[in-house]
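User: Hi! I'm working on a homework problem where we have to compare a predicted structure to a textbook description. Could you give me the structure for the chain below?
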Amino acid sequence: MNYSIIIPAWNEEAYIGQTLESARAVMQAVDAQGVHHGELIVVDNNSSDNTALIAEQSGAIVVFEAINQIARARNAGASVASGDAFIFLDADTSCSETLLSNALTRLSTDTVVGGGSTIVADEEIPASALRAINGWNWLSQKAKLAAGCFVFCRRDAFEAIGGFSVRVYAGEELLLSRRLKRWAKKRRMSFDVLAIDPVITSARKLQWYSRAQIFQQMLLLFIPGAVFSKRLCKTWYDAKAPRRR
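Assistant: Happy to help. Predicted structure tokens:
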């Protein structure tokens, strides 16, 4: 199966090099098995730093998306991708060879439409944050909802449902999960959230924002209509947030 790893990136010069190096190593290990072949795409979401330059120097395909919205960035990457399978990976996240290989194997069976993975933080975090992550991992497996930092799916299904909704400014991965599940149900396919080897994602937002700010943004996902407002979701689009450890 040909696949495309798509990484949306906005002012990620502190992380993108490390993420691409990790992704490239994992892809080489998976592709060496002779079953799958991948390409690496970075979507520069109107960055004002050296994100695009670093990505170009790493050998990734670089796409530009002028409107600062993660759903649009992911869709922009998918629009130039050549793979039959899409892996959406955040710029501060890494996955293992085991996870990538397992996701691709499932997609190639024609019984799985896509899915996600459980997550772990890249550093020690407060007990309250750890409980929140564990709670999310339980919910994502129970409700079959993919975390945005790692989403995998078939290309035909992604295109059939119209990709990520550009009407929302947060929770777009949850909406995509629900739409993919509906598409899959009609075809007796499944949407799987894997727990075999969790993706490792940055805990930097715990350093940037207070617990109250993070809780407020998470709460928006459960308030009807809130995610349609960029103003309400401004924490995730805060240009002043430091893009560094």
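For your comparison, note the following. The chain has a mean pLDDT of 91. The two ends are 36 Å apart (CA to CA). Good luck with the assignment!
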